[in-house]
Amino acid sequence: MGRVTERRKVIRVRDGAVSTRPDTLVAEEPLEIRLNGKPLAITMRTPGDDFALAAGFLVSEGVLAEQGDLQNIVYCAGATVDGSNTYNVVDVRTAPGVRVPDIALERNVYTTSSCGLCGKASLDAVRTTARWPIADTPPLRVAPELLAELPDRLRASQRVFDRTGGLHAAALFTEDGELVDVREDVGRHNAVDKLVGRALQNGGLPLSRSVLLVSGRASFELAQKAVMAGIPVLAAVSAPSSLAVDLAAETGLTLVGFLRGSSMNVYAGEDRVALRAAAVRG
After folding, report:
1. Domain 135-279 listed as CATH 3.30.565.10
2. Long-range contacts of 236-240, Cβ-Cβ distance < 8 Å, separation of 24 or more
3. What's the confidence (pLDDT) of residue 136?
4. How would DSSP label each residue in 150-201?
5. What is the mean pLDDT of the chain?
6. Which 8-state DSSP code applies to residue 92?
7. 252-255, long-range: CB within 8 Å, 24+ apart, which pairs?
8. Residues 6+ apart with CB under 8 A from 201
9. How confident is the model at residue 198 (pLDDT cuts 50, 70, 90)?
10. Looking at beta carbons, which pairs linking 95-104 to residues 24 or more positions away fall under 8 Å?
11. How does DSSP classify residue 241?
12. In Å, what is the CA distance from 2 to each residue of 26, 65, 163, 253?
């Protein structure tokens, strides 16, 4: 099975001095996801938590919603011409009676580690396939001071990043700021899928009392995944895209960007952030 990191020789230049040394790099390998035996998608990912990644991917596709929807996930033997197992192909079997929506059957795509599900979904598609409307979730209020503490907590939990400097991370926190789970991957959308997939496998969906923090920007794909998992608050240390803001506004998702120190921008769903009324100016 692929490793999370690999060693490569590098020529290091520092202040004019040249030396040769081994460097630790994050591993990147393709993962083909099959659904009930049929090829569905290929994503470039950091090996590890592959079953959770596949399960989380299918939550965002509207295929899986609860633990009972999943029959099993296996690595496919004979994935190469010589019959060996590369551990880069997984087959997800749904439980009998689980309806597979057209949103998953109509496409067979290559997904890069940076783009997520490029151009696949529209705002209407996410609205109509979400199992747990965020606007209907029980009230949840998060203090700005608590949000400000989360990036440092995430950073302290990034074990592989410290060795490679080349991984995105995503973490789930409770509304009180307790770290529930953290995953790292070369693709930010894969890190979120791993979180959501583990929650599904443990019977934890919907994540209606959770805050999702991502280490990079907040793209449409990440907002989509939060909505499909029933997560009411998505925070990012960098900028959101315009479509992510549109999706958040349409679905009731609280979207926070540029979460750095005590500063942040709230782009949608400000009712869940306990802002002081006198401090909010038009």
Report:
1. no
2. 237/151, 237/213, 240/267
3. 85
4. HHHHHHHT-HHHHHHS--EEEEEEETT--EEEEEEESSHHHHHHHHHHHHHH
5. 86
6. E
7. 252/133, 252/134, 252/135, 253/134, 253/223, 253/226, 253/227, 254/142, 255/218, 255/223
8. 51, 52, 55, 67, 70
9. very high
10. 95/68, 95/69, 95/70, 95/71, 96/71, 98/63, 98/64, 98/69, 100/35, 100/36, 100/63, 101/61, 101/62, 101/63, 101/129, 103/61, 103/62, 103/129, 104/35, 104/40, 104/58, 104/61, 104/62, 104/63
11. P
12. 11, 29, 17, 36
Q: State yes or no: is 115 an active-site residue.
A: yes
pLDDT average, residue stretch 184-189: 91
Amino acid identity of residue 28, one-letter, is E
Cβ–Cβ under 8 Å, residues 95 and 67: no
- Where residue 102 falls among pLDDT bands split at 50, 70, 90? low
- Please pick, among 42, 76, 100, 115, the residue that the annotation labels catalytic: 115
Contact call for residues 249 and 227 (beta carbons, < 8 A): no
What is the per-residue pLDDT across 222-263, written as a single tens digit (0 to 9) for each? Answer: 999 999 999 999 999 999 999 999 999 999 999 999 999 899
Question: Does residue 25 or residue 194 have the better pLDDT?
Answer: 194
Encoded amino acid at 269, one letter: G
The phi-psi region of residue 219 (left if phi > 0; otherwise alpha if psi is between -120 and 50; otherwise beta) is beta
Give the Å distances, CA to CA, from 122 to 116, 189, 206.
Answer: 14, 17, 22
17 vs 196: which has the higher pLDDT: 196
For the chain, give every domain's residue range.
Answer: 135-279
Query: Can you list the positions of beta strands (E) in 15-167?
Result: 17-26, 29-35, 38-45, 70-75, 89-94, 109-111
pTM of the model: 0.86
